[in-house]
Specification:
Helix content: 10-25%
CATH class of the largest domain: Alpha Beta
CATH topology of the largest domain: Leucine-rich repeat, LRR (right-handed beta-alpha superhelix)
Strand content: 5-15%
CATH superfamily of the largest domain: Ribonuclease Inhibitor
Number of domains: 2
Strand order of the largest sheet: 1-2-3-4-5-6-8
Largest sheet: 7 strands, mixed
Number of strands: 9
Distance between the termini: 60 Å
Shape: globular
Oligomer: single chain
Radius of gyration: 19 Å
CATH architecture of the largest domain: Alpha-Beta Horseshoe
Structural class: alpha/beta
Length: 189
């Protein structure tokens, strides 16, 4: 039987049907199920034909695996919405994002990301990567495989040296934003 909001409110800490110990945990699980069942409906069709998904204000620790099946997705935005008051942020880029091989734009600003998975190089159609305002210290060498990358936003991270892998993108990369990073030298060795 589907759980209505009225019935959901009546579930107490002691009788949550899935055996969880708290109403809060149970509500979180219900929310995840709702996200999973409606994920495809959240994809926005843009006038230019591109498909965009903006996961704002959701618990990014519970990103549904169904997301990784949206292989026709062009734009993925997992930038937390500060106005919502939600403090959900990514601490790492899920390797599953790299299954979205048709992505052209990946927006991950304002999270707590420290590093990328090596599989990032599999996003061969990626044109725009924005990861400003994170805690990134270095980029994986596989970034050099992003031969269509035109715009890379890495500002306000903890990068101390310009990653050498970016030099391999000189034919495609038009914009590189690195302001307010902690440079100790120009290029890493």
């Amino acid at each position: 039987m589907p759980i209505t909001q009225k019935r959901q409110r009546s579930i107490s800490k002691t009788n949550a049907p899935d055996g969880t110990s708290s109403t809060t945990e149970y509500n979180k699980q219900i929310r995840i199920v709702r996200i999973q069942s409606r994920l495809r409906m959240l994809v926005e069709q843009l006038p230019n034909g591109r498909k965009r998904l903006h996961l704002k204000g959701i618990d990014t620790l519970a990103i549904p695996t169904e997301l990784y099946e949206l292989t026709d997705l062009d734009i993925l935005d997992v930038t937390p919405e500060s106005k919502s008051g939600m403090n959900y942020t990514l601490s790492r880029v899920p390797a599953g994002f790299c299954l979205l091989t048709n992505l052209k734009c990946l927006h991950l600003d304002n999270n707590n990301i420290v590093s990328f998975p090596n599989e990032i190089g599999e996003l061969c159609h990626l044109e725009i990567l924005t990861v400003s305002n994170n805690h990134i210290t270095t980029l994986p060498d596989q970034i050099r495989q992003l031969q269509r990358l035109q715009s890379c936003h890495l500002s306000n991270n903890k990068i101390e040296e310009v990653p050498l892998c970016l030099c391999y993108l000189s034919k495609s990369l038009l914009f590189l934003f690195l302001y307010s990073d902690m440079f100790s030298s120009l290029f890493d060795s």
